[in-house]
Design goal:
The chain is α/β, with parallel strands linked by helices. Helix content is 50%, strand content 14%. It has two domains: 88 residues, no CATH class; 165 residues, Trna Endonuclease, Chain: A, domain 1, CATH 3.40.1350.
Length: 343
């Protein structure tokens, strides 16, 4: 008797699904158990007269006892993590549900983020966007949350996952970080080479762009009766429901660049946008931004046109924090300056 390929495929799908469900259930149970262990450790520590020294001895003794009976996974360092897990997420006491999509590795990374709002953001984004623990670690280290905030005009704004309202600025980072291209420093790269490198690493590029982006094309042609124009990269964001045009610049931003992108946006809205699409967004990615151009050009106050910097390497934490602070200051200056054309 010969079994059909469809029958075998169906059986394999059933078993794979069952294994995945079992893994998810076991993972959720163990994460909850780690939180309960942390809670019990804290309760026991609080009974000691000298809390710090008592806690250290308690954890070492408990580690030896658990390792004998349950094997690896209950080292002194891990027990400290369980205790921190409880202290960082006390809201589980009030019925807060653990996210079954996240593993213990995810929680261990997120609980080290000091900013409460950033922790909430990473929890939600990680679950919704199905980030692996490696992607999460990279995003935390590259200050993904803070880079999104740096592009927003409202100093009290939060990224879109924290709100029901979806704004274009919730999806724009400043700067973007392309360390995944592995371009050695010092680098000399043309716009064409940068474009090719990004396309060759499209999966990483999409992760850095953020949620909702799908790739449409490179060197995308739009034509009028007399001329052809080519846009470096075109994406569609299904959350914002609009096209996103990207122009790559290896030098400093100029007012000619902003004028060109403004023209592309207007042409794309006229020639490609459908009635169901929202207005097209344009992003100019550049090595450096001229503050005068940003402050006095059509960029100022334009909700469809953005100019942001990119980095081909992962900056140090100090460099990144300084960069983000600089962008926030520049945006604050824009808010207080009326729009003025470049002469």
């Amino acid at each position: 008797m010969h079994l059909s390929d469809n029958f075998i495929a169906d059986v394999k799908t059933i078993l794979a699904s069952a294994r995945e469900q079992a893994y998810t259930a076991i993972n959720a149970s163990m994460v909850k158990a780690y939180w309960l262990l942390g809670k019990r450790i804290v309760q026991e520590e609080q009974q000691g007269k000298e809390r710090a020294s008592y806690g250290e001895g308690l954890l070492k003794e408990l580690s030896m006892s658990l390792t004998v009976e349950f094997g690896k996974g209950f080292s002194y360092a891990n027990l400290k993590n369980f205790r921190k897990f409880y202290l960082v997420f006390p809201e589980l006491e009030k019925g807060y549900a653990l996210r079954s999509e996240l593993t213990w590795t995810h929680y261990r990374l997120i609980m080290r983020v000091e900013n409460v709002n950033a922790r909430s953001y990473y929890l939600k984004e990680c679950a919704q966007q199905n980030w692996s623990s490696r992607v999460l670690e990279r995003n935390i280290y590259s200050h993904y949350y803070e880079r999104i905030l740096s592009s927003q005009n409202n100093k009290n704004a939060e990224p879109s996952s924290m709100s029901d309202k979806q704004n274009s600025s919730d999806f724009i980072k400043d700067p973007y970080v392309f360390e995944f291209l592995n371009i050695e420093q010092p680098y000399q790269i043309s716009e064409h080479e940068l474009e090719t490198a990004l396309i060759n690493n499209l999966q990483h590029f999409l992760l850095e762009l953020g949620k909702g982006f799908s790739f449409i094309g490179r060197q995308f042609r739009i034509s009028t009766e007399t001329s052809h124009f080519y846009i470096d990269l075109v994406f569609y964001n299904y959350i914002l429901k609009c096209f996103v045009l990207i122009d790559l610049k290896t030098g400093k931003l100029s007012h000619q660049d902003t004028g060109q992108m403004d023209m592309y946006i207007r042409m794309f809205d006229d020639l490609k946008r459908t009635d169901s699409d929202n207005p097209t967004i344009g992003i100019i990615l550049c090595d450096e931004k001229d503050e005068t151009v940003v402050k006095y050009s059509i960029l100022n106050g334009n909700e469809q046109l953005f100019a942001t910097k990119y980095r081909l390497y992962l900056p140090t934490e100090q460099e990144l924090i300084a960069e983000i602070a600089r962008e926030k200051r520049l945006i604050a200056e824009q808010i207080n300056t009326p729009n003025r054309p470049i002469l």
